[in-house]
């Protein structure tokens, strides 16, 4: 290359000398492959989860009939005479806790989101948002401890019939746990409603409340619903709070003041107990885990679908 | 002819304004609920646990007697766990993020990988525990070791790190890449010398937050079945170990009331570790925010 | 006229101008020879049958309204345009007698010879020194003394040495916009390119900084061949030897700058430079 330079030592000459090193070309080809392998690892993880659950659940169904499992209303795995593996009581326990959590978290979460997005000054937002982050970062074991040692005794003062282990207290605390998630995701959805739309309504003489309820909430609805669905999925999969505070008595009823058991708490009970490898009880945690996995997967896909399908175009 | 009735509008106005005020207060109270709960939670834990928190508590092993119970094995065990989780999850997570942001073309395979990551983020942690128990503990034969638990936790927080790293990489303006390519740099040179250095604060912040989630996570450890009363410290990643949240769980579910105070003391230690980690993350985020 | 154009279509777009340049510049060396270049973004036909020669040690300005393809053409000269997915090209661009559009031409090598300065100053968030040393380093020059020399020479070359010599270790983002742009020019000089491509380098700068960059361009053309895309017609008139006027992907007219601005042959050129559109 004819470089029209006067300099004695040309940089281009030096570059030309150091070119042609094999290493550079090799790295250039190798790195995308290595990175692709890293990326496929997450796919492998999913495959491993699904296969693990399917194989071990299959083993379980060799011993327990699938209809007994799906429709049985008795879950008595530790019974020495006649163990029963009907999952409905565990599902009932999970749903009780989840419903209570939703009743607590959805109104509070959406109300906080409206406040933060429509009313709060920048200063308040700067204080509240980090606190919500801290709340979201509190380990669930701490929430479980809080439910057991604070919320339950407090509720017992108000409701004398409440047992030490019950669905109400962990339900409320799971609600507190998912509250930051609903608040921040809903707030994101509301904040992304453009200001011009708000100004349009305010310019017609609307109050802030009317703007929030009639304009912003409907516009952000899909985002809010998606956040609630994701939160439900979290609540269903929550483990430590219910393991500590909900008890270990699976029941097929709708009472919330007495000991129950959720799917997750059952898995913990078996894992911390001394059921040996290869027993029916051992395989039962995979069948329960699989059921749990399907519940949360459906919720996650639903949330994904809602936020994608009903995405607002501004 | 006018359709708007001034008198009616004025009459309704005061009512509408009153509603606005009322609901504003209600929304504010709802927002404070979270703050008050956090305050109560912290107050309770501190008042219950402070009495048991002393030097012996930090340097003793676990015990059947509340007064002698200590958190040494759990604290050291959690540090060992992080020593496995941090490198594994950060290398895999950042690698995946670089692939998705810099190399991946728009096609079915890459869309599937993206979709898969977002779904993986929603899988309950206890299911990861079942995965770890089956694959790492039994199939690979790692036993209830730091390695088995660490790999399980790494997979659990991997989606969080990937997403954080993707955002950080995406935030590097394209003109930076163009400047590098314009000088004859190869793609990998551009990534390693321009994109990654600029994205590192964001990646670090996200990674520390993800690691702080791993340090407080209990369910996978319970399922893997790591022990709680250990009288020795781990010597390698193949050692058995116990961890902070596991120890707290064990204390919290014991029937003797005194153990609840021990549990509270353990929670103070755990929360202190978390607050330190979060402060570092916030510090990095503020210090290196937006330079373009 | 029509007949004539058809007859010569394969060799030139504008037969009335082209032979003149060749005769006048028989001594001037051609750096870039673009032949029948077409470019598509997906379905959009971005450049249409572009034929253009760029000469050594000259400033060639490319003007035209937004979206006329002038930046696209510039970015084709160092194949930066390939960063946009779905770009297709046909035709040839001969750079020093080699076709850079051919698959065998390593794009990294091309960009080592052809530097680029961008619209918005885009220094790296590193020290001034590291910014300048970036190019030499990626090409394997690690000797600290050599790097020191290159950094000083490049900064002097970009007329900014005196302003920054005492703070080479400070972040380049601490400098003003005009200084940043000259740092970017210095960064580009550090690999001693043959050609410098400038994509509206002053559009983000204030008038005084613009003037400095323009003066710099005048100095640089002694050693380098410069192609500059500009929105500003006065700028083109001030600093360039030759000007090409692009419109909807086509070269309407290409001539010495004085001719283009004083007696353009095409009505559209005249309309554009007299401000009737664009």
Automatic annotation (TrEMBL), chain A:
InterPro entries: MetI-like, MetI-like_sf, Phosphate_PstC. It is found in: Cell membrane; Membrane. The keyword Cell division does not apply. One of its GO terms (cellular component) is plasma membrane. The chain crosses the membrane at residues 30-55, 84-110, 131-152, 164-182, 215-236, 281-303. It is a multi-pass membrane protein. Residues 91-303 form the ABC transmembrane type-1 domain. Pfam families: BPD_transp_1 (PF00528). Gene3D superfamilies: MetI-like. One of its GO terms (molecular function) is phosphate transmembrane transporter activity. One of its GO terms (biological process) is phosphate ion transport. Keywords: Cell membrane, Membrane, Phosphate transport, Transmembrane, Transmembrane helix, Transport. Part of the binding-protein-dependent transport system for phosphate; probably responsible for the translocation of the substrate across the membrane. Belongs to the binding-protein-dependent transport system permease family. CysTW subfamily. This is Phosphate transport system permease protein. It comes from Lysinibacillus alkalisoli.
Automatic annotation (TrEMBL), chain B:
It is found in: Cell membrane. Residues 75-280 form the ABC transmembrane type-1 domain. It is a multi-pass membrane protein. GO terms for molecular function: phosphate transmembrane transporter activity. The chain crosses the membrane at residues 21-46, 79-100, 120-140, 146-169, 190-212, 259-284. GO terms for biological process: phosphate ion transmembrane transport. GO terms for cellular component: plasma membrane. SUPFAM superfamilies: MetI-like. It comes from the Bacteria. Keywords: Cell membrane, Membrane, Transmembrane, Transmembrane helix, Transport. Belongs to the binding-protein-dependent transport system permease family. CysTW subfamily. NCBIfam families: 3a0107s02c (TIGR00974). This is Phosphate transport system permease protein PstA. The lineage of its organism: Bacteria, Bacillati, Bacillota, Bacilli, Bacillales.
UniProtKB/TrEMBL annotation, chain C:
Keywords: ATP-binding, Nucleotide-binding, Transport. The keyword Nucleotide-binding applies. One of its GO terms (biological process) is phosphate ion transmembrane transport. PROSITE patterns: ABC_TRANSPORTER_1, ABC_TRANSPORTER_2. InterPro entries: AAA+_ATPase (IPR003593), ABC_transporter-like_ATP-bd (IPR003439), ABC_transporter-like_CS (IPR017871), P-loop_NTPase (IPR027417), PstB-like (IPR005670). SUPFAM superfamilies: P-loop containing nucleoside triphosphate hydrolases. One of its GO terms (molecular function) is ATP binding. This is Phosphate import ATP-binding protein PstB. The gene is pstB.
